[in-house]
Design brief:
Layout lengths: L2 H36 L13 E3 L7 H21 L2 H21 L3 H6 L18 H6 L15 H4 L3 H12 L5 H12 L2 H11 L3 H12 L4 H4 L3 H21 L3 H17 L10 H11 L2 H21 L3 H13 L8 H16 L1 H12 L6 H20 L6 H4 L1 H7 L11 H18 E3 L2
Antiparallel strand pairs: 1-2
Amino acid sequence: MLPDTRIRRAGLTFDLAAVGAGAALVVAAALVGWQLLRDAFDIFLGFPPLLASWAPHVGPGTPVAIVVGVLLAARGPALAQRLAWRPLLLLAWATSVVWTLGLALVDGWAVGVAGRLATDQEYLYDVPRVTDIPAMLRTFTDFILTDQPVHWTTHVGAHPPGVFLLFVWLDRIGLGGGGPAGIAVILVGASACAAVAVTLRALGSEDVARSALPFGVLFPGAVWVGVSADGMFAGVLAWGVALLAVGATRRGLRADVAAVAGGLLLGFVLYLSYGLVLGGLLALAVLVVTRRWRAAALATAGVLAVVAAFTAAGFWWFTGLHLLRIIYAASAAAGRPYEYFVWANLAALVLATGPAVLAGLRRLAAAPRSLPLAPALLVAAAVVAVLAADVSGLSKAEVERIWLPFGVWLVVGCALLPPRHVRWWLVAQAVLALLVNHLLLTVW
């Protein structure tokens, strides 16, 4: 056997070992989780480590999702290498939308799309309460605590008002209700793969962007992008980082506008979810690579403009965070033991990112210089963000959706997978997503 053949086989063996370790982690999290339930620990998970219940089913989205998975695995890698850049991005976004919507429609339109954001715990439930947007922002923190007769629903109160404001605006322009809200979330969330690719190309790694893009499209986390607001958060954060990268690597007025726009989006991200402050690590990675302080200053000005606007409107971010900690301690988190979720969370992330990401991360850890500096730093930033969120104890369970904004960046490591194996890794990604969505009924 030739030496290079032995090396290739050894690489695949180590990749499969990483996947096996991830599978073992998932099984362990399931077994320990079920034991906790038997021991009367109310961890509020029907199918640990996921917030889901066992419910094998098919739906109108089944053939759509299967066809997209097959076509993308068969043709995606070649198209990603051959197509011109802009048509490639549009095709990637469109395919991601169809993949995500197909997965959502496995549960049917009413359950899988229109009903996701319209329950009595979700954002749309409180939209009719808002008759005066400035008054809502001014008094938002008055209704966060749940030990009072009138308070925000679970998801509204547990987040800054930015995300709630988006759904109120949708309602004001005539797109109220769960259907339009669900489609809006899918359209934004499914664009994250294109934003990651734009970031990589702007930072001089178009080859990495093209290699990773099929994995970004066929992302198993699309199960929760359609439909959870966290999927939308992933898209907004990714485009904020992408615009910052464009602004930091080009010159002239357009570059300055991109940097400011990136800062505005990154500032708005802070008002979508408190935990997305960790998304600043991705922006920092861009600035470390580019060292363009003009772009940094312009983006910072954009962030501060958003902060100033929300503060002037009457919402102070740190007050909201303080109240969140209070309601979080009294929520389902009270029955969720930290010592279990600090590692079971990672099992949920494995199910959201897939085996190909495990193999890619394994290769990157074994040879950090196998990727150019920019992609490697972006992956490292996402890993650090996940670990920080995990250790904080403010992400006990449900991270299959909560960590989507970081998971879409872990896909970059898939660019290291050997071209001869790429189609099979894409098949594995698709099969995982299809199994999760057809065997389980997820809450999001």
